[in-house]
Amino acid sequence: MALKDIKTKIKATARTHKVTRAMEAVSAVKMRKTQGTAIAGRSYARAALSILARLSGSGSLKGHPLMQVRTSDVLTSKIALVIITSDKGLAGALNSSVIKAASDAIASYPVSAVTVYAYGKKGQEYFARREYRIARAFENKKDAIELSVMEELSSELSHDFAAGAYDEVLVAYSNFKSTFEQVPAVRRLLPLALSDMEQLVKDIVPVKGKWSELKPITSPAAYSVEPAGSEVLNYLVPRLVAVSLYHFLLEAKASEHSARMVAMKNASDKSKEVAHDLTRLFNKIRQAGITREVSEIVSGREALAA
Q1: Long-range pairs for 281-285 at CB < 8 Å and ≥24 separation?
Q2: Domains and CATH numbers, the chain
Q3: What is the pTM assigned to this prediction?
Q4: pLDDT, tens only, 41-54
């Protein structure tokens, strides 16, 4: 390889290193911000579980349309899948892991039985290529997450589920564990169940820290609701669905920036390593050329002296 080509590669690698370092710094700032938002949102998920636990003894709650478990086989079931991915790449295996988990969850259902609600371009493109019906598609470019969007989506899903359009609503997202660990997860959003909310809170409570010392939630045997159980539940249960969906999105956003920061850090380290190896190769070839030229000069001088 010519010295000019090696020097060109060294310069190109150095430029790549600058870009990846800049992207790493940006992702680190966004990661800290989204982590704080996700952690702050965990208390609301626990509050939602507490409300649901207190109402679990109510007969009106057990008979609510959004909590009815429907028994049907795989061939006749109708599934709604909400998949949360990013619009951008350069986040390692984050999106592919979520898509794989979602695909495994609906693998036993016919394509015609699954309706996809895609929050993020990556998930939308994947399922559109496989001819799944895309009911709604949302951009996932902004870091600021608007609760109104989640309320709109949860309202539509709740209405369709209560009307019998779907037998089950699933959500596929990336669960944020730590900066270096994001776990793909598929959770059941509807029918709403106390056990699902308990699992949600269990997944988001860290191993150490103040949130790890939370006391277990207990529910009463019965609960009186005023002024009317149906009136309160018709407002409350859809809000619980929206809180769950909003929290899934918070976790996914924190996971995205964490995965991208780690991916950019790995790319920066690798580009630095490649530049170092190319510099050593450049010096080695250059030294070999200088040694050869010196040998030729000495040989010529000795030939002239003879």
Answers
A1: 281/1, 281/6, 282/3, 282/6, 282/7, 282/10, 285/1, 285/3, 285/6
A2: 3-21+264-305 (1.10.287), 23-261 (3.40.1380.10)
A3: 0.77
A4: 667 767 766 766 66
